């Protein structure tokens, strides 16, 4: 779906000085970011994390230049790894209890008529619209979503195609906000949001800086669970690691940066799998940026 761009892509050469708040970092470019990190890895064999260390290995620029946007990976994973990351993939009925969901049949009466509805009970969740002030970019996460890939397989099979062999693995990778389930006992949703920022994206943000925007009902037709949306601004002084999620929970998250002046083009690209929450979060960040609130 996405191809790797040349190291000196338009994004690599782009100096981030379009926003008034970028005056103090007007000499900063994605190409310099990439080169700095590459030299660190070459010299030490592993990345170190200090203020002004930017984690974008050279050549990790991905996106669709013809669509008007490009993304840079902050964790070094490239799209070409997709085909090697996914092994077996099969679907089967849920016959044992799940850690995360509970299927239920609801019987109710509406306007005197007996009705039935199937739902999936799940935990409430949090999501965070993240703005990286050092590079004037939104921080996204990219990960493999089995349900998305399975839905694509069903679509291919309905067309009479051999979905298992023809569907690229990249079809199951989606772009999303940093997010997670609010399933930790004794933690507020704000505290859960802060933990998710650290676990998934590698930034240790002060709790008071995690601002609640609103909450809303998600998956209305099947779950009805509540999601709380937060905003946080990060910079490299908060960097504690690469992020990537919790391996013990099966998470393998790639952290991406999207320049703020390319948000509209990214949202408009229907071929790029993304969540509705991400699109809303990006528009929220754009609104704050326009009003000089970041």
Q: What does this protein structure show overall?
A:
The model is unreliable at 1-61 (pLDDT under 50). This protein has 8 helices and 12 strands. The chain has a single domain (3-81, 120-290), classed as Nucleoside Triphosphate Pyrophosphohydrolase (Alpha-Beta Complex), CATH 3.90.79.10. It is an alpha+beta fold and 294 residues long. A hairpin with a 2-residue loop joins strand 4 and strand 5. The longest helix is centred in the N-terminal third of the chain and has 15 residues, at 30-44.
Write the layout of secondary structure elements.
Blueprint: E1 3-4, H1 10-13, H2 30-44, E2 61-64, E3 69-73, H3 82-85, E4 101-110, E5 113-122, E6 125-132, E7 137-144, H4 146-158, H5 163-166, E8 173-176, E9 178-181, H6 189-201, E10 211-217, E11 226-234, E12 254-259, H7 263-268, H8 276-290
